[in-house]
Write a structure and sequence with these properties.
2 copies of one chain form a homodimer. Chain A has about 220 residues and is an all-alpha fold. Chain A is built from 11 helices and no strands. Helix content of chain A is about 65%, strand content about 0%. Chain A binds a DNA duplex (30 and 30 nucleotides) through helix 3.
Chain lengths: ~220, ~220
DNA sequence: TAGTATACTGAACATGTGTTCAGTGAAGCG
DNA sequence: CGCTTCACTGAACACATGTTCAGTATACTA
């Protein structure tokens, strides 16, 4: 009689959390019901509340778990291979599909956990980029921190809108062609920019002469 | 007895639609209840359903209305001043706060209406960018269409994540300082890129030799 | 005037869903 | 064994919310 119940060795609480991460990510916090999560985990709805107190408590547990997993993956990556290009920071986030879906959903719904992960990724990217500047792979910026924020926001933004990008490309979502064309476009902009000269930047700098860059950046000429 | 009821000259159906646009944008489709919308519009909940059939029907009406308004603003802009820089395409979307909030919410929730607006903005940006290339303000791209998609996705992405950006900047959301620093960072990347040379682009092009650029781009050497 | 359509309302209905609670069975412990 | 603890369940509760419906008032038409 142990063929059905013993389908995996995770504890019931862990199965509930895993099912919740998947359903929250796929359906969103509201549409994913406690009953659905319980069914996917193979337990009764009451047990979900027994272990996590409430649906929000379950989300908090999922947040903590996912953020923890990403942090673990990040430190592992740093300790093993050391790639300095800013895309490596994103690579570690892709690959684990369900956690990625959960993260994107959290970002969409604006939970604090996603914000913390955003901040952590900014910090991580900044360190990578500082190293890239030292090795000469990246051109120095007048405000590397702000640039890191911008790049992380853009990367996440592209991920959030990947459905729209795929449609506008006329390709299947996550198809090989889509990824290639996307990366190619990114590389071109990252390498050459889009303006033919610095007239826009100059015009802006004339309008808004380099005012005191507040906290978060410490350049001084 | 006409002091309370006659607070504006919009028809009840219009007031309902306006209240719905605002609440859907601020709270999201799920959290904005029919009763709340009715209260904001100063009518009974039943009237909402009487005019729009269902809550989904109301959303459809809001979608159509907002998309229509943006399209109108866009054609107006094109017909009056003719600015070719790609940021002008975004400027028309900002400014009208409630519609902007509604659009961002739709983008987050992935409604088809937001997709249509995304596509429209890509097309519009592409035309602007083609003109920019002709006038020499933009450097020619090997695939201007894909670049337009990327830039629109990034712009929207930055908008979607403006809360995270503000926090990472250490500024108030929508503060003057935040906008200045954001624009400055954007201009720097758009003008110079982030890489110091083309080694990454070259490496990629060696790995993935310029395969037949499929539909949507028609460059040939 | 009578009739009909339309805008509109209050109240009720149906359902989905988070949550509670009494109870069961098994495991550990004295 | 008796007791407690804990994971776990089935059923019910409470409530929010979309929706329906009978009914009212007003405006327009024949």
């Amino acid at each position: 009689m142990c063929s059905v119940k013993r389908r995996d060795d995770r504890t019931a609480a862990a199965r509930i959390r895993d099912a919740a991460v998947e359903l929250f990510g796929r359906e969103g916090f509201h549409k994913a019901t406690v009953r659905d999560i319980a069914k996917d985990a193979g337990v009764s709805p009451a047990l979900v509340l027994h272990h996590y107190g409430s649906k929000s408590g379950l989300r908090d547990a999922c947040d903590e778990w996912v953020v923890e997993e990403f942090a673990r993956a990040r430190t592992e990556m740093v300790e093993s291979g050391t790639s300095t290009d800013p895309f490596a920071a994103m690579a570690l986030i892709q690959g684990e599909e369900v956690r990625m879906a959960y993260l994107l959903r959290s970002l969409r719904e604006g939970t604090p956990a996603a914000g913390r992960l955003f901040d952590g990724l900014v910090e991580h990217s900044l360190r990578m980029m500082e190293q890239g500047v030292r090795t000469g792979e990246l051109r120095p910026s007048r405000n590397l921190h702000d640039q890191a924020v911008l790049l992380v926001a853009w990367q996440f933004g592209g991920l959030l809108l990947q459905g729209d990008v795929a449609r506008a490309f006329g390709t299947e979502l996550n198809s090989r062609e889509m990824k290639e064309r996307y990366i190619r476009a990114v590389l071109e902009v990252m390498t050459h920019g889009v303006f033919s000269d610095s007239r826009y930047e100059d015009a802006w700098n004339e309008l808004e002469p380099t005012e005191s860059v507040s906290e978060g950046a410490m350049e001084h000429d």
